[in-house]
Amino acid sequence: MRRLNQSRSGRDAEATQIQPARSRTLALWLAFAVPFVAYVLTSGGISYWLDSGEFVAAAARLDIAHPPGHPLSELYGKAFTLLPFGSITWRVAVGQAFATALASLFLCRAIFAAVATLELEDAAAWSIALGGAWLSALTYGLWFQAVRAEVYALQTLCMSVAIAAVAELERKHTVDDARPLYVAALALGFGLANHHLIALLVMPALLPCVVRVARQRGIRPLLLASGFGLLALMTYVYLPVRALAEPAINLGDPRTLANFAWVVSARVYSQNLHLLDMEPVAQRFFDVGDIGVQSFHALGILAALLGLYLGLRHPATRRHTLFFGLLLVIDAGVRAWMGSVRANPDILGYLAPSFLAIGALAALFAASLTWIAEKQAPLVRARLTRVAWLFPIAALLHAPVSLARSSLASFAAPEAFDEPRLRALPPRAVVIETTPQTSFRHWELDAVDVVRPDVIGVPVSFLRYPGTADLLMKRCPEIAPLVRGYLTADMLRAEDLIPLANTRPVRVELDTHFPSAAYRILAPDQLLHRVLTSPAQIPTAVAIAHERRTTFSALYKNVGGDLHEVETARQLLWIHYMDALYFAALGGRDLARSSLVFALALHPHDANLVRLARSLRDPRQVGPLDVKPYLEL
Predict the structure, then answer these.
(1) Closest by alpha carbon to 451, among 483, 415, 475?
(2) Residue 114 is inside which H or E element, if any?
(3) Contacts of residue 244, Cβ cutoff 8 Å, sequence gap at least 6
(4) pTM, rounded to two decimals
(5) Nearest-angstrom CA–CA distance, 223 and 415
(6) Are 34 and 55 in the same domain?
(7) Do 380 and 446 lie in a common domain?
(8) Which residue among 237, 321, 362, 465 is buried most deeply as judged by most CB within 10 Å?
(9) Both 261 and 376 in a single domain?
(10) Contact 210, 88 (CB under 8 A)
């Protein structure tokens, strides 16, 4: 009998050890697998607008992207281009999906470390941790980063690793093992080598933990942690080493110490910050709050706020709650204070740490309710484990809304613009690319499919970056006078364009870099404008009207269902607006009004469009319109 009892007690102890392990394994696998499958199924083979084309090209050819260079993203993206299936663009997108899903796994671990301090059943604690991870991972803010080539998915992974490590340190009253601090330092170092501003916004939230480690263990762990951070920062060595090989895209040319400092510091953005027309500070804070409500619904935000309150009140969860609260307040608050939020497509990437913190705080609310229920009725402890699974199920409820906004599975709008902007150009054409997205798309097509290697793109937005103009003139000496003229006058000049057009076909992407007085040497040509070399080449008004109808009829048909997608609509809006200014400046008021009809259909309340339409309708004004006020945006 004694042996039988001993055998039973041994099996019971073994079962007690196996059950938590199963709960942990299941929760972590689900935290990763469900978002990853959702992300991959909603990724597409066509890159998105904005910087996606640049990062696909940087991954495919190991180019050097815009400041701060983003060396970690380029190396990480390159690894996924080696997958043996799918297009290069899709492979890079899968890399983003993998990073964001892995971030969900680490967030799950971080939340469990916080919830475990309440001494709940392991199965209940892991269920709540899984729900918090899904709540964040399946928001539009993180989901959208997981399906497009950018730096934010990898940055979210770096930050989540650091968050999980700090949460593990905060789990115990005494710091017996400082290794999680070294992991956090390494992850933050890699974050600094990827997008240093976001990493810097996360670091203040770690200070209470760092101070506690220093008080209990002295300065040695901090020195070791600094060493791990510096080791990760060595990723930046990639930039000057790669620049020595003169890659196709080498923004900032960081071969010299001065250029390297210019690239890594991202000084160009701080210098241009004063040029932005930003909303009042109070409005920016309101906009950040609105983004949170749209991402998590009002109930999700309410749960996070209640989790913050309850977590701070309970001594066991106070340190974790303070950490997540600081993470949220500093990241969201400083980003709102720094600059524009509204109509800023990258703001969701900057707010990724805030999204992680909101999921964690909402999970703390669920855990606090479970703990309170256990205290009130200890006999229902086993039932609460089953009830805890309702939290991850509830977290899945906002997935359909996020899916509808995030999916790029059928997105193909950029291809509709590729034909008139690049593929259909005459041989040996030179394209003056005045918007960054056009340059990015050109670079991607050249890197992935070697589309039109005979066409030279002049990326006006980047000509003042160190080394860019010199490299471009070295590769195509014919454009040297044009480039030097732009760098001197900060404007594209007719006297530089016409000589070049006599030797090669020249197309201009019209925008504010081109003076309205020089519109006389241009003629519309699909989505670009052709540089004329003689008055005999000027087309008639009837021919221009026919060309515009043909061009936009084909474009709108090819864009199809993506017409009102935000960035696609912005592309079209800008083209129609510049068309209207071009025609108005040359006296073609009917053609200008026709262009405005398209633009107003996309954005009927835009102040610049409404003001221009009013001027064109004024019966007292005839002939050419002075469009200079409309170019000062």
Answers:
(1) 415
(2) helix 88-115
(3) 255
(4) 0.91
(5) 51
(6) yes
(7) no
(8) 362
(9) yes
(10) no
* Residue keyed to tokens 């890197």: 447
**Residue 613 within a domain:** yes
CA 501, CA 480: separation in Å to the nearest integer? Answer: 13
User: Which of 193, 18, 131, 59 shows the shortest CA–CA distance to 360?
Assistant: 131
Q: Which tens digits make up the pLDDT trace of 563-602?
A: 889 899 999 999 999 999 999 999 889 999 999 999 999 9
- Give a yes or no: residue 139 inside a domain: yes
- Write out pLDDT tens, residues 196-232: 999 999 999 999 999 999 999 989 999 999 999 999 9
SS3 425: coil
8 Å CB contact between 508 and 514: yes
pLDDT at 102: 97
Examine the domain organization and report whether 288 and 360 are in the same domain.
yes
Quote the domain boundaries for residue 255: 20-153+238-266+281-406
Co-location of 57 and 120 in the same domain:
yes
> Both 378 and 452 in a single domain?
no
The closest alpha carbon to 580, from 537, 532, 614, belongs to 614
Q: φ, ψ for residue 205 (rounded to 5)?
A: -65, -20
The number of folded domains in the chain is 2
| Pairing status of strand 522-525 against strand 456-459 | unpaired
Same domain flag for 395 and 435? no
Alpha carbon separation from 246 to 251, 454, 560 (Å, rounded):
10, 19, 39
Which pair of tokens denotes residue 464? 């003042």
Q: What's the pLDDT score for residue 365? A: 94
Cα–Cα distances (Å) from 610 to 79, 309, 617, 632, in that order, read 48, 47, 11, 15
Whole-number percent of the chain with pLDDT over 70: 94
Q: Using CA atoms, how far apart are residues 599 and 602, in angstroms rounded to an integer?
A: 5
